[in-house]
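Our consortium's second objective concerns turning raw sequence data into structural hypotheses that experimental partners can test. To show how far this objective has progressed, the report includes one record in full. It was chosen at random from the queue rather than selected for favorable results. The single chain below, 362 residues long, was entered without modification.
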Amino acid sequence: MATIPCYTPPDFSRPDLVGAPVVRVVPAQADGVLPERFHVTSNLPEYLHLGGGRWLLAREGRMDGVMVLRGDHLQIIEPRQVRQGDPVVVARSLRGEEGLYVHADGFATCAAAVGQEFALRTRASRETPFSCPYDRLYDVLRHDRDHGMILWVLGPAAVFDHDSRAAMATLIDRGYCHALLAGNALATHDLEAARFHTGLGQDIYTQELRPGGHCNHLDIINEVRRCGSIAAAIRELGLTDGVMVACERRKVPYVLAGSIRDDGPLPEVITDVLRAQDAMRVHARRATTVLALATQLHAIACGNMLPGYQVAADGAVRPVFLFVVDMSEFGVDKLANRGSLQAVPILTNVQDFLVNLRHNLV
């Protein structure tokens, strides 16, 4: 199988699509208030009929967005961003009956069409072998390091272990991370490890409890706040290892979205949920491969704003890969239930996953 599957566009010569009407738009009556029957976007390729057989493919799609169409210019935005008078696409049928066509089979392969009405083990579980997903992931990451945009979504478990933390930093240094989404905890405990060699007071290698170690994460938050920023703290405290140090060294952008549970938080943490959503979306809309590790809430949030495909400058269409690494199926099942059908689960602990990735890529 090719590293990046080929895309097969719809056959617009089909009689039902040849006779499709022009898609309709209706002005929004107020800021954030949508017209009746507004179209709710999916993360699949969606086409609008502009008339005369011209079909426009939506770029930067996402789930639960709305379409604003001005002539040939199409935006997909969140409902809260709609302004009074914006021409909003209205359609609730998806097969061309109202000038809108959702193309679900663009990346279908022979392997997906086995011709069986019934089959066992169609969903990944704890019993599933993951050799093939790993091999596919290696190929995709090697390709997208130079020809795509690799987005990581990390939970704090990635930095509670010495080896996985070092592996993630190495992957960043070797160009396998173009942006990082996380919360206050990931950055806090990574900086705690750099300063004290602990994670929530435990030695990150031996897992032994350090005397007074339960204060370490609050101490590092306090020191970073005194310095004014993560970058300033890295310089002033002489921190030399870890994920945040690697991001600053490689100029990899990161978004730290706040939570009601946060200590501190660190200065860079965005505590306004809508601002955090907007900042995450900047990177999600550009991603070609996403790896979400041990963070169900951030993985689901990112998956919901993630397009299922990307359109290159030359018009070529490719899928967006989403790999979800966790100890249970819950996260990927939740993503699938919310439309992220491209999510590929790898059920393992993140420490083994990251070390394995480094061994095979570096």
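The partners drew two points from this record. The first strand starts at residue 24 and ends at 27. The chain has a mean pLDDT of 92. Both points have been shared with the crystallography group to help prioritize constructs.
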